[in-house]
Batch of 3 targets.
Target 1
Amino acid sequence: MALTNTAPIPELYVSAESAQKLKFEAGNLLSWDLTPRQICDLELLMNGGFNPLKGFLTEADYDGVVENMRLADGTLWPMPITLDVSEKFAEGLEPGTDIALRDQEGVILAIMSVSDKWVPNKAKEAEKVFGADDLAHPAVNYLHNIAGPVYLGGPVTGIQQPVHYDFKARRDTPNELRAYFRKMGWRKIVAFQTRNPLHRAHQELTFRAAREAEANLVIHPVVGMTKPGDVDHFTRVRCYEAVLDKYPAATTHMSLLNLAMRMAGPREAVWHGMIRRNHGFTHFIVGRDHAGPGKNSQGKDFYGPYDAQDLFKKHQDEIGVTMVDFKHMVYVQEKAQYYPANEVPEGCTVLDISGTELRRRLREGLEIPEWFSFPEVVRELRRTSPPRAKQGFTVFFTGLSGSGKSTIANALMVKLMEMGGRPTTLLDGDVVRKHLSSELGFSKEHRDINIKRIGYVASEITKNGGIAICAPIAPYTATRRAVREMIEAYGAFIEVHVATSVEECEKRDRKGLYKLAREGKIKEFTGISDPYEAPEAPELRVDTEGLDVDYCAQQVILKLESMGLIKA
């Protein structure tokens, strides 16, 4: 009997000849440019990673998945995989139409036959899938502030795989992995899912898991989209490669998974299990708080530490993969080795370094002990995240027109240039309007575009080790958050709320703008006819009333010093 985990599984690609023909025909179709997340989803649809899905979910399938983790026909499937598009694109689109799906370079990857078009209840989706309609959850924020308002569903015909220029030899489709297991004669294979660099505790844990299951081990890290703020996948893969030779080559393999994670905890664990089954795995390691996004807006964890394991166990037979539950591993000083936290010999000293503590040590250039991580891994991490005083960062002033943002920003720039050491750029509102955004007006949409442009330039400056100082009004929380995420991928983001009252700003009104707004001659003026959403938890709040500029700029300098961004 053929073993099911090594037999080929169905893909959605057509043959090479048909692909050529379809590509030609698809040139005349209405086309949608896929977002990075949609490209990840499409790749796993086409290569069988999302089997049994034949395309993006129809409305009936979506409703079932949101409600009770089942497709309309009753099959287990925990995650909505939908094509979200803009209202404008959806407007003239009738179900029954074919559309071309293109990557960001315009290459046609697939044709989708649109069978359904609907406007989802996103609050309900957040509640059911992620457990709470709380914007502190990255996927809920994505749902409300980034994803399009209209969903399309329907089958997909695959024309070609998305192109990856990096780590080509390490990327395997489900069928390529299955063929590898067939060739190697591997029957039991345990997958280790990770979005973080591997340290000694992980190695110990994966060794134990493989031993317990008497299985071969595949390190199967996610290199699609993880959580904003995670270590970038280039650095992580270099870290994995650095530790791979600590594993026995005959029983261990590493393969990269181009998945866009949702950080959905329990549902995500079930989803990961099903994706691993499609890749030919028989066992899967599920950790404490598997795929958890961290804290909610009340400061509590979104999911309980064992919720993911419980839900996985409940559906294990249907998932078709055996769970290996992950013990929290700690280092026991007296024994000089790792133990599961619940098996530590009595009276022994436990040493552990949390992720937060590790980041602090990297940031401050402190020692990272060898019992915790491999010198090769630490070396890679230090290359990507040098100590804070050598990293780029962005200071982002926000406040009403006339609050004093630009004046303080100017003073701050001069103080930082006096210190020297890093190139410093001031992205002032008026200057940006002139050079980057001259065609934009002042509608909400245009103001958002302007702020995101400023954020993009600041993120590039930060990435390259410089200091960016921005001083736009930036009245909307969601836009400021988007800019924060753009920048925090590369360095620190310091939000400074210049909290001068509207009355004071009106008194100072040099340009006479408030007067014109009061007379109705300027529409959508922040603070008068348009809201200003004050930041709830900025890194620093300054009120300029009765204080001189020098003092306010000095407060920012002190904040930067306390964060380790400039040397005291």
Note: The chain has 20 helices and 20 strands.
Target 2
Amino acid sequence: MLENIKTFASTFFVTGDPMIYGADVSIVLVSLAALFVLTYFKKWGYVWREWITTVDHKKIGTMYFTAALLMLFRGGVDALLMRVQLAAPDMKLLHSEHYNEIFTTHGTIMILFMAMPFMFALFNWVVPLQIGARDVAFPFLNSVSFWLFFFGAMLFNLSFVIGGSPDAGWLSYPPLSENAFSHGPGQNFYIWGVQISGIGSLATGINFLVTILKMRAPGMKLMKMPMFTWSVLAACIIIIFAFPVLTISLALLFMDRFFGAHFFTIDGGGNPMMYVNLIWMWGHPEVYIVVLPAFGILSEVVSTFSKKSIFGYKSMVFAMMVISVVSYFTWVHHFFTMGAGADVNTFFAISTMAIAIPTGVKVFNWLFTMFRGRIEVSQPMLWVMGFIPCFVVGGATGVMLAVAPADYQYHNSYFLVAHFHQTLIGGVVFPYLAGLYYWWPKIFGFKLNDRLGKWAFWLWNIGFYVCFMPQYALGFMGMTRRLYTYGWDMGWAPLNMVSTVGAFLMGVGFLFQGWQIIHGILYAERSNATDSWGTGRSLEWSIPSPPPVYNFAVVPQVKGFDDWYLTKEEMKKPGYKAEKPQLESIHMPKNSGIPFVMGACWFLAGFGLTMETAFSWMIVPGVIGLIGVGLCMFARSFSYDTDYYIPVDEVKRTEASLGRVV
């Protein structure tokens, strides 16, 4: 009996690595601490009522942000482990298999479980407020989306200590991801974790597309929408058409592994390049899914802190929509070396270069907005100014990679690694951090400490260039990707050591940001001020901070682009007299526990189908989980008591407590 238990434990849990044991201890201690705090302070009911069952878009945004912050930490630790391994030749920190697992989880977490929830956090925090809506179009579906993301991310991260992490790369190319090379459950964790969270992402894209098209305040025509809302609309269009491709790709790969199909196995008549095409049909539009909202953030921040309306509004809108279309016609540039032929390579080289044109238009628009503006160098504006040179270099190296003959030299080298991080950190993380600092006082009612923020900014920026500039040179020197060790004779050691120092500087910058958030929660001065920066231009700055559950006591009547700025200018005129608002009962959705239960059922289904490869009886909880998902959908179909009304008296009391006279 004891021997059977030992055999089960050694197969079920990951063993033999001190770092894994450290992670086991950390998970247990953190879990026990959370349980103790919730029990000791009697907060179980509060957490259930206010967070787990919430359909309030603002709270869902906060949960997305919290998850993104945790995933940034996890993905950052993976990055530092890789950089330590490569800091000098013949390092022994990670063996080859563990290194493969680390770079696989690092890439997957940073793109799908950090950048995507960070983006969705900003969607939820900002879009309904910018368009004058009281919630998103489908609040229940919004909650389902979050819990699918959450449980998908948890399932993927569980592989670190149970079953084993995936090791076929962050896009899991066959044949490495087929049973012959990844026979354990690790690859199944990848498939189901990404699949479950991807369904949630698709639902979010549908939800916000409908929200923007159908729930704008009266008078807000499409060409009066704020730039961030336009960027979200463009990103949602890509999500709706790109994520089904990811769903199908992973489903076919799972059928190869689970049912013995041969979609991507050559010896069974399949073709692994079909998977590579499919995954990049999703993968390259995915880059623009996370970049387009960043462009919208930059437009809002530049306009606010230059104290000018955005330069070339129509050209900015046109550029974003062009990118949302052309992004579907660039995927082959990821494998020019496949041998598709000169005609195919030429088409995708030209389309890749062409997409740089609308991107460049926006950079010039931001610069012209700042030109002769009264620029205020606030924390959000610092990140904008850090973004512009970084993204210009990333765009230029992208055009270099778009030239098919040159790509034959750059392909699979560290030049590509440097370019990718230049665009994804400089072009996504920096703008998202600008948006975080910009909208933080609106959502939480206080600003983050300026001094700590500047330390974080400079450590991030200096660390970034110290880390990734040497990697361009390493690529030219012949260093390839996914290399876990190298010899002294290669001459790569000095630049790799410099790169590792830069990575740790960025890590210290992240710690300053964590300190900044904790400091703000404990010590920052709270304010219900509507316009926290004093120069806000769109509707979110017309309501108290943080906003009440219903956002707007009276749905605004929009007069034009930058409506709040126009209202403030009107208020400055002599004799201005505000109209007394006509309050009415406000219709709001009720909280629901079904999305959480549905997410948990998806987790159970994914875990059972993942571990079935190691223990055949695990198919039982997998099937039970899928039945649970169906029952949750059935229960929702017969839920009729799903909304309520906030009476006028309660609205008046809420507004009065926020310092508003109604």
Note: The CA atoms of residues 76 and 578 lie 51 Å apart.
Target 3
Amino acid sequence: MSGTNPADRSTPSPWQRLAAASGGGNRWVVLAVLCVSLVLVALDATILHVAVPSVTEDLRPGPIELLWIVDAYPLVCASLLILFGTLGDRVGRRRVLLLGYGIFGAASAVAALADSAQVLIAARALLGIGGAMIMPATLSILRQVFPDRRERALAIGIWTAVAAVGAAGGPVIGGFLVQHFWWGSVFLINIPLMALILPLGRWLLPESKGAADGPWDVLGALMAAAGVLGSVLGVKRLGAERQLLDAEAMVPLLLGAALLVLFVRRQRRREHPLIDMRLFSRPAFTTSVGCIVLAMLALVGLELIAVQYLQLVLHLSPLETGLRLLPLTFAAMAAGATGSYTLARIGPRTMVSLGFLLTAAAVLLLTLMGQQDRPLLLTCGFILLGFGLQTTLFAAYESMLSEAPAATAGGAASIGETSYQLGAGMGIALLGSVMNAAYAPGLARVPGVPASDSAGAAHSLGEAYQIAAHLGGPAGASLYAAARHSFVHGLHVTLVVSAGLLLAGAAMALKLPRTMECGAPDAGPEGDGVRLPAQSKGRPAEGSAVRAAGEPRLSAAERAG
């Protein structure tokens, strides 16, 4: 039963009735609303990074508080994606999305006016709750509004391009705001946009639900939230401490992994699970999820190191750094805009593999970077990087979402977004550890520098600069030069490791389907996801050949079984 019972139907708004009368013509307006929502969520993941020095100067947070100011948002958001994605399938995706808008706007106001580190941490956590409501809902509503796979591919291309714009635009917008206003302005910009989009969303967005049979598994949802929180926290701690046996990293990581294993076992036993684990028996779905993890692992780790290189080696300002990354954003937009055309021509397998290969080529090209600025090289590398990774992410998301039945779109979307967040955390941890392992040995024996200062300089390039300035004289100059040389060496090693991971992703993508299969639109009688009056009680129109929205697409083997 697909959750489209007449008793659940709400009265459609005039815009929704117009959509029904015109065959869903306003679904592109719906997509625009969803994309604006996504931009705000993606912006907040990166916009604070350039404001951290100003926040530190104003609020004087301790080291742990500063860590939580930065990490509270992505940690809370990642941990609650499955909970709110599956809740939207039950109670209505638009309802969860609109509530997320309200929470996000209120939390932005609290964050902008925070007068202490504790208040800012709480506001960032609240932003994470709002973001976790918004992200899977946008993708699952998109899945419902675009039942035709060709149109949905174009919509997902736009959606992924907008996500790239939001993430890459964060440092640029944040750098501009911090230079001209105060750090709270990076949150304040959310409020007028949320004030506009909340009534628009209520007016324009169609309500849709998935399978509503049986009780919602509250315990399972909490287990998933705690498991993802522990796993992401542990991975982030590994990236910060660079020690595999660090207790503060291993304890939450192991607990999180154990809870996720128990969650999977629980879902397999339940008659009405939160997430149908049979999805993972489909090679295309599982491979798509793995490709998303690998692509995000490469993207976030490389972006973090690239930002450090631009600011600490080339000494660019935060705004100049953000502008240098704009070619990556524009290339990602181009890949998203042309993604549906490319996917239809060459198919998911070739498209994802090609995206990984392009990204690996970009990474290897960037190994030519040195201690001197080479703008043309960086621009070419960032263009290839943005186009390649966005090509991979687009085709992987489209394949993953098309493999999932419309009735479980919220759960599938939450799996994709959780994979996105896990990949980002793993990228920071893994590539950060590789970077540190290659960087630190170069500072072990610098002439004239005491061992204690060398050990401190080995923690990061920024700390090495501070110690070099404190030492002064020939010893300080030697430490400064050695640190720059070691950082660039570590960057080259990290890029080579990244290229290896990307080539592994290209090999993994060979399990995806060769062609993009486009059958009949897989919607129920609601068509584009707008709830229309039932033609007969709980039944589709007579003679309809379209399957119900909650009915999964079965393979020949599953039908035979």
Note: Confidence is low (pLDDT under 50) at residues 1-10, 13-25, 520-561.
